[in-house]
Amino acid sequence: MKTFINNPIFQNKRFNLTVFFLFSMAAAVQQILLGHLNNYYIFKYVYYHLIEHKVIYSHYPAEYVDSNYSGSLFVFVIASFALLPDWLGLLFWNLFNTVMLFYTIRKLPGSDKIGLSSIGSFLLYRSKMFAKIEVEFQNTNRLLLALLQIKGNYV
């Protein structure tokens, strides 16, 4: 297993980003086909409720099953995805979050010293359940992680 993880291909940034993209797209397509879009609908309708001057924290059972916990500034992040058809918006939302996660990993202190293969192997082989949950439920944790890293770089 160590020989496999230390393969030079895992040092290739494009290869790793491609793998991240493929996992993200596969999970998004699966969720679209299964009709599991509830979290995406919550995010999408934050945009629509705000521009319609509705309370964004109220329950809207006709549109989604859960509650919104995102703030009104989140509208600026989700707006471009909310305007797309659901299948395309969800796909791009997952890809956007994947890019943000990948960016964050690349910017972690010491990531250039330990090599992307170590980080990639940890994320791809040790935390499959987290990645599956994160992508399948269209959560924003990847985006929040990236924003915290960006903030840390400029403080």
Describe it for me?
This protein is mainly alpha-helical. The chain folds into two domains: 37-83, no CATH class; 86-155. Helix content is 70%, strand content 0%. The chain has nine helices and no strands. The chain has helices spanning 2-5, 13-34, 38-51, 74-82, 86-107, 111-114, 116-126, 128-136, 141-154. Helix 3 (38-51) packs across helix 4 (74-82). Residues 125-129 have low confidence and may be disordered.
Quick rundown:
This protein is mainly α and 155 residues long.
Labels describing this entry:
0% strand, mainly alpha, 9 helices, 155 residues
Average pLDDT: 74
Low-confidence stretches: 125-129
Along the chain, the helix and strand elements come as HHHHHHHHH
Share of helical residues: over 70%
Rg result: 17 Å
Structural class: mainly alpha
List the helices and strands and how they pair.
Blueprint: H1 2-5, H2 13-34, H3 38-51, H4 74-82, H5 86-107, H6 111-114, H7 116-126, H8 128-136, H9 141-154
Helix pairs in contact: 2-5, 3-4, 4-5, 5-9
